[in-house]
């Protein structure tokens, strides 16, 4: 018997030279496959014919009837990173979380439109009821009587019931107060003032509810953009109220804007209840990819439902003992003081200093709020991009807040040298526009406290 090492050479010597390489062990070049052509028969079979006992292990390929279509890319996308960026943008625009941000923006637009309509109607109302300028100021300030404490109460309600439910009740109540204002004014002055107080109380829950929904629906790297979208609606509400109220009053009377804006609020509530969920996990339309993206991009906050609701007394003493709390309160106080002073006195400023008519004053007063809406969203996108590129969240918020304070201060100094209403409007547009950078500063920072009681801080 031959040793095992000599069996392989002996077996090779007995094979014909035309044996296939995987049998003989020799390296031979296989025939090239050509589409549409039959494979040549193996040379080791007799007469060049295939044996039924040795069929080919695969069928010859068929010729394609038409070439496959080239890979398509999104319009305007460049190969590589550009196409990926376009895909991310397309996913963001069509996502469920953007629907939430858009609905929040519409709610805040109604919030400010219902608020600013009184600034336009106060002049004809004073003439119709014989109000003095000082009493007209009392009527306008009655809104703030209810707004003074409602953000604190609204924040506690948001922590207990969630942002979706509290926002729905808030919009319904302030729309009802706006809608009933004509009826109340015709019945009693005190009843009319009560509707204004109810309006302020209901609108106080808007921003805490918005913060709650953004915190639950958006990852950390998109929260500034979400707040930018929502606050853009907030500023556009000023523009809508200032521009549309005089037109509606000229056709439907003094109280026409109150009725129309109130009806729009009721319509918004119906859409909000039926189309929006309190958390991504409760949404039946959200894709698995988007849900995974949201949950991976944020530290989840426990859903408040049933027995999981917060039932403890908020630790106000602990909140007030922290320096970050006072920093947020101070930043919000300075931001809101400048915001409401400009909002309340801008039409009067143009009318008394530059002696323009009421329609021109409305247009000069509306332009800065349009700029604030646009730059607010731009600031949110820039802020998110800085965080995505590695800048710390704390440094990003400080940069945005610095622009939001220093920019308007410089612009208001330039306003003192304005000699025409056009130049004055330009300076005010710069000041109000740069003020929106603060929304990507202290306002988003409230959501990053990572405690549920952050909504109790006043807005």
TrEMBL record:
<dbReference type="GO" id="GO:0016020">
    <property type="term" value="C:membrane"/>
</dbReference>
<dbReference type="GO" id="GO:0022857">
    <property type="term" value="F:transmembrane transporter activity"/>
</dbReference>
<feature type="transmembrane region" description="Helical">
    <location>
        <begin position="254"/>
        <end position="273"/>
    </location>
</feature>
<dbReference type="GO" id="GO:0006811">
    <property type="term" value="P:monoatomic ion transport"/>
</dbReference>
<protein>
    <submittedName>
        <fullName>Os01g0852200 protein</fullName>
    </submittedName>
</protein>
<feature type="compositionally biased region" description="Pro residues">
    <location>
        <begin position="56"/>
        <end position="72"/>
    </location>
</feature>
<feature type="transmembrane region" description="Helical">
    <location>
        <begin position="399"/>
        <end position="418"/>
    </location>
</feature>
<comment type="function">
    <text>Probable anion transporter.</text>
</comment>
<feature type="transmembrane region" description="Helical">
    <location>
        <begin position="227"/>
        <end position="248"/>
    </location>
</feature>
<dbReference type="InterPro" id="IPR036259">
    <property type="entry name" value="MFS_trans_sf"/>
</dbReference>
<keyword id="KW-0406">Ion transport</keyword>
<keyword id="KW-0472">Membrane</keyword>
<feature type="domain" description="Major facilitator superfamily (MFS) profile">
    <location>
        <begin position="100"/>
        <end position="459"/>
    </location>
</feature>
<keyword id="KW-0813">Transport</keyword>
<feature type="transmembrane region" description="Helical">
    <location>
        <begin position="143"/>
        <end position="161"/>
    </location>
</feature>
<comment type="similarity">
    <text>Belongs to the major facilitator superfamily. Sodium/anion cotransporter (TC 2.A.1.14) family.</text>
</comment>
<feature type="region of interest" description="Disordered">
    <location>
        <begin position="56"/>
        <end position="82"/>
    </location>
</feature>
<keyword id="KW-1133">Transmembrane helix</keyword>
<keyword id="KW-0812">Transmembrane</keyword>
<dbReference type="InterPro" id="IPR050382">
    <property type="entry name" value="MFS_Na/Anion_cotransporter"/>
</dbReference>
<feature type="transmembrane region" description="Helical">
    <location>
        <begin position="326"/>
        <end position="346"/>
    </location>
</feature>
<feature type="transmembrane region" description="Helical">
    <location>
        <begin position="166"/>
        <end position="185"/>
    </location>
</feature>
<dbReference type="InterPro" id="IPR011701">
    <property type="entry name" value="MFS"/>
</dbReference>
<feature type="transmembrane region" description="Helical">
    <location>
        <begin position="366"/>
        <end position="387"/>
    </location>
</feature>
<dbReference type="InterPro" id="IPR020846">
    <property type="entry name" value="MFS_dom"/>
</dbReference>
<feature type="transmembrane region" description="Helical">
    <location>
        <begin position="424"/>
        <end position="446"/>
    </location>
</feature>
<dbReference type="Pfam" id="PF07690">
    <property type="entry name" value="MFS_1"/>
</dbReference>
